[in-house]
């Protein structure tokens, strides 16, 4: 068809092909930071790169083709970061990682052209992009390491114009890493921290960048414009980033006057570069410094005013921050309505697939907080009734965030407190009808142990390969020395004598394994386990159908925050207890949580006693008085329970409930009644872990033992247990009595462990020593893997598969510690073993005697064979067997502490 002007219409595809053929992909990537990212026109560049098929593998292109793909993926990672589409960013990182690693190896070999900056530039920027995503997700150590690689690549290739941005990001991540601790509250990040220490490294980085500017003729005092050389503009953009970080540090240190001066310089550079994002950051800092906040927030909310011709669409998150703060400052019904509209948008955002990994939880939580504060300031008649509902909606939304660092941080800081207040409000309303108690149990279960349930609800991950780097084992003199076979299985004792550099290396290797664990679930998103509102009814049905069974659910509720004026008053930070026996739920009087925390502290004090690291008699009595005596009457209503199940929470995970001892009876609890523990009602009832009490035994059950033994951890628990020799498999030093009499003997290393796992053992036993690590950003138990490596909780979760397991015992001191978290989730080896498929689990909570462990585990293994008799099958009751053994083993001892010392493991179903 001819056009009106008589010309033949141009074929659009021909024009596109001509454009693509003329496009210089490498030049576009080199200009992306200044010409596309700064004005927020990332989509334009990415569209051109996609048309040019820059992401496509072309084998004939060689290393340059790899570099182009890496650079193209970097551009997309930046766009995903700015848009807070963090799951999309993680997928892009994973898709391009092999190319980036190949390019890094190629450049490290020195085979690149030193006069050609493009491959190194693409690689340095890719690592910087990865670091930004890791930082956003709260993995500060991971981000610091990746930023460090970016800096190393840039310095080696003399990419001086890119270094300011990379150095600034590295410095910020390094500080956050140092300041991060397991108990730190994100909402109070600067409280208690040496904020002045942040200013010094930021100033040092600033001075380093200024020195580089002088060396390369970059004028840091002039405002850049279109005539400024490209590399100078990119350098100045990085310098503006460093200035912004310095201004932020000064504000946090309380020096707002200097912060504003530095911000003014950063803002001037950013405006000269038409840098939408960094200009917005400067405006935010001006607002937070109190310099006409309404004016600054309005400028950020309406970026169209005075926008330059080639500006991009603006920074959406910055606009939302401005709207949030303007509504907060305005207050009244109008401000409340604006905050409500913003919350509606955030609730809609949760459905976005890319946001599920990086839901903007902090922004969401602060919006809810401002909504609550604004509502409380209104007259009583105007206050909305949906404040608590909004907070719970935010909590439910965060549970959709599958990036584990974000999940853990947000859950502890924002989600759990919302549920604790909601449970407290329900408790305040009173009512002891069954329906009221079911609501409380439902809220408790909705807020507790959810990450583990999500892991169980997801398809069990494939077993990962062995770690790339072994963890250093104990330094000389810290391993258990030879001595009496009745010695204790001991922890690493000389950790404090290790040089600081060695501790840092050891810690980083631990974090590397944790990162591999988290990366796996970033690549294989968790299925969010649906909460069952009828969970309490299922608990009732369980006790009705298992005569004599009693379940005790401990839970935390309330808040340490004072209610705002006009808000419903809730309970203070407290421990609640619900007992379910014969289908009846009973709510017991609450306990101040400070008493629980003090008891946990006393337990740790006892276990730190080098002469006798066992719970003392006074402590055992206190455990009974505080946590067991209140439930005893309800638990024994209708007769002693045939099976008592205790479900801990928070600090109670670290308290050995099974040794609780009544004032009038010197028998510890586990010797008085058949006792087990569980991690949640949902895991125990809904996920069927109550079925592990009684299990079918068969003649061909396999027994696997990982033995990292010495004189204080002999491994004799597998000797004389009546097992068929061909079904016994050992990795490590085989006990003398079994040499030449077992089905498989392997070394205590990764090869041997893989052989044990391949047997799919129904019974798995570990004998050896452990250590508990408490370091910033990484904490938890470790156990020895022979003399070459150590096993972390992350290794057990993803490198050990026990799909048909019926019983696992970790016979290492402290193996049961580290189960609690600030978010109420169960952590440590307990979580890992449940994820790996383990059946019933026995773990010690202190430095136990070798003889007690040998006797206890041997009794369990021996009875599992005894029930077979002359039949091919039999039923083994692990709870009853452990109770019978404990009851008999204490009879020859009279003191409480000696009796407690014969009860080495707590049993979890």
Please report which band the strand proportion falls in: under 5%, 5-15%, 15-25%, 25-35%, 35-45% or over 45%: 5-15%
Instruction: Count every beta strand, where a strand is a DSSP E run of 2 or more residues.
Output: 17
- Spatial separation of the terminal alpha carbons: 77 Å
Class computed from helices, strands and strand pairing = alpha/beta
Main beta sheet strand tally, sense and closure: 7 strands, mixed
Mean pLDDT: 83
Please report the number of helical segments. 32
Name the quaternary structure.
single chain
**Strand line-up of the largest beta sheet:** 9-8-7-10-14-15-17
Computed CA radius of gyration, to the nearest angstrom: 31 Å
Shape designation: globular
Low-pLDDT stretches are 181-193, 305-312, 352-359, 475-485, 492-498
Indicate the percent of residues in helices: 40-55%
Structure notes:
This protein has 909 residues and is α/β, with parallel strands linked by helices. It is built from 32 helices and 17 strands. Helix 9 packs antiparallel against helix 10, helix 14 packs antiparallel against helix 15 and helix 17 packs antiparallel against helix 18. It is globular. About 5% of the residues have low confidence.
């Amino acid at each position: 068809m001819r056009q009106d002007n008589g010309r033949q219409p141009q074929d659009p595809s021909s024009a596109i092909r001509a454009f693509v053929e003329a496009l210089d992909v490498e030049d576009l990537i080199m200009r992306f930071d200044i010409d596309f990212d700064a004005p927020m026109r990332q989509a334009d560049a990415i569209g051109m790169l996609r048309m040019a098929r820059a992401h496509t593998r072309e084998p004939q292109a060689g290393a340059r083709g790899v570099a182009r793909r890496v650079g193209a993926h970097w551009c997309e990672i930046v766009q995903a970061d700015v848009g807070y589409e963090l799951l999309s960013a993680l997928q892009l990182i994973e898709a391009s990682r092999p190319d980036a690693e190949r390019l890094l190896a190629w450049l490290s070999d020195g085979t690149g052209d030193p006069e050609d900056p493009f491959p190194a530039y693409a690689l340095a920027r890719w690592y910087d992009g990865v670091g930004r995503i890791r930082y956003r997700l709260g993995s500060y150590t991971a981000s610091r390491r990746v930023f460090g690689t970016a800096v190393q690549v840039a310095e080696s290739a003399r990419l001086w114009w890119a270094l300011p941005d990379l150095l600034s990001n590295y410095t910020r991540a390094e500080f956050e890493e140092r300041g991060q601790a397991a108990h730190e509250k994100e909402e109070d990040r600067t409280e208690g921290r040496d904020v002045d220490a942040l200013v010094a490294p930021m100033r040092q980085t600033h001075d380093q960048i200024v020195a580089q500017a002088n060396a390369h003729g970059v004028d840091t005092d002039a405002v850049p414009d279109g005539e400024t050389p490209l590399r100078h503009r990119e350098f100045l953009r990085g310098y503006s980033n460093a200035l912004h970080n310095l201004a932020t540090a000064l504000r946090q240190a309380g020096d707002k006057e200097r912060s504003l001066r530095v911000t003014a310089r950063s803002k001037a550079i950013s405006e000269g570069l038409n840098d939408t994002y960094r200009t917005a950051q400067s405006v935010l800092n001006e607002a937070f410094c109190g310099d006409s906040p309404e004016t600054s927030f309005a400028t950020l909310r309406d970026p169209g005013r005075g926008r330059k011709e080639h500006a991009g669409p603006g920074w959406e998150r910055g606009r939302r921050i401005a709207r949030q703060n303007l509504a907060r400052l305005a207050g009244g019904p109008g401000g409340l309505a604006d905050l409500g509209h913003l919350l509606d948008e955030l609730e809609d955002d949760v459905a976005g697939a890319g946001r599920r990994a990086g839901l903007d939880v902090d922004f969401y939580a602060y919006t809810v907080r401002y909504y609550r504060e604004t509502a409380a300031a209104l007259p009583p008649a105007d206050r909305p009734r949906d404040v608590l509902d909004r907070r719970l909606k935010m909590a439910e939304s965060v549970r959709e965030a599958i990036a584990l660092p974000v999940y853990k941080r947000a859950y502890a800081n924002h989600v759990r407190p919302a549920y604790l207040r909601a449970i407290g409000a329900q408790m305040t309303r009173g009512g002891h009808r069954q329906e009221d108690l079911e609501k409380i149990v439902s809220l408790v279960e909705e807020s507790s142990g959810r990450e583990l349930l999500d892991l169980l609800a997801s398809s069990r991950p494939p077993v990962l390969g062995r770690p790339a780097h072994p963890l250093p084992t104990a330094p000389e003199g810290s391993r258990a020395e030879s001595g009496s076979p009745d010695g204790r299985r001991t922890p690493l004792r000389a950790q404090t004598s290790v040089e600081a550099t060695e501790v840092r290396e050891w810690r980083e290797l631990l974090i590397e394994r944790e990162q591999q664990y988290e990366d796996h679930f970033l690549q294989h998103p968790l299925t969010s386990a649906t909460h069952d509102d009828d969970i309490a009814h299922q608990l009732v049905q369980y006790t009705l159908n298992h005569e004599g069974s009693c379940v005790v659910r401990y839970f935390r509720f309330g808040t340490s925050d004072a209610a705002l004026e006009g808000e419903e008053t809730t309970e203070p930070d407290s421990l609640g207890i619900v007992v379910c026996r014969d289908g009846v739920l009973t709510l017991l009087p609450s306990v101040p949580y400070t008493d629980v925390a003090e008891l946990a502290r006393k337990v740790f004090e006892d276990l730190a006693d080098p002469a006798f690291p066992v719970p003392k008699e006074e402590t055992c009595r206190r455990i009974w008085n505080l946590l067991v005596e209140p439930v005893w009457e309800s638990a024994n209503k209708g007769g002693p329970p045939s099976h008592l199940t205790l479900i801990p929470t928070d600090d109670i995970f670290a308290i050995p409930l099974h040794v609780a001892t009544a004032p009038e009876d010197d028998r510890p609890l586990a010797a008085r009644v058949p006792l087990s523990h569980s991690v949640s009602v949902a895991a125990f009832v809904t996920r069927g872990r109550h079925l592990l009490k009684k299990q079918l035994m068969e003649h061909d059950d396999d027994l696997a033992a990982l033995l990292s033994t010495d004189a204080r951890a002999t491994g004799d628990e597998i000797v004389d247990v009546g097992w068929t020799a061909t079904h016994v498999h050992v990795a490590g030093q085989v006990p003398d009595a079994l040499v030449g009499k077992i089905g498989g003997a392997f070394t205590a290393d990764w090869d041997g462990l893989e052989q044990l796992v391949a047997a799919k053992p129904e019974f798995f036993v570990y004998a050896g020593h452990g250590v508990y690590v408490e370091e910033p950003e990484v904490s938890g138990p470790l156990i020895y893997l022979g003399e070459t490596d150590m096993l972390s909780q992350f290794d057990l979760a993803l490198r050990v598969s026990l799909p048909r397991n019926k019983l696992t015992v970790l016979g290492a001191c402290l193996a049961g510690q580290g189960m609690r978290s600030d978010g109420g989730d169960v952590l440590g080896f307990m979580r890992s073993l449940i994820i790996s498929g383990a059946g019933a689990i026995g773990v010690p909570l202190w430095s136990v005697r070798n003889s007690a462990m040998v006797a206890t585990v041997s009794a369990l293994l021996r009875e599992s064979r005894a029930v077979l008799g002359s039949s091919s099958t039999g039923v083994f009751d692990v709870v009853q067997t452990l109770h019978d053994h404990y009851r008999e083993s204490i009879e020859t001892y009279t003191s409480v502490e000696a009796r407690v010392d014969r009860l080495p493991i707590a049993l979890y179903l």
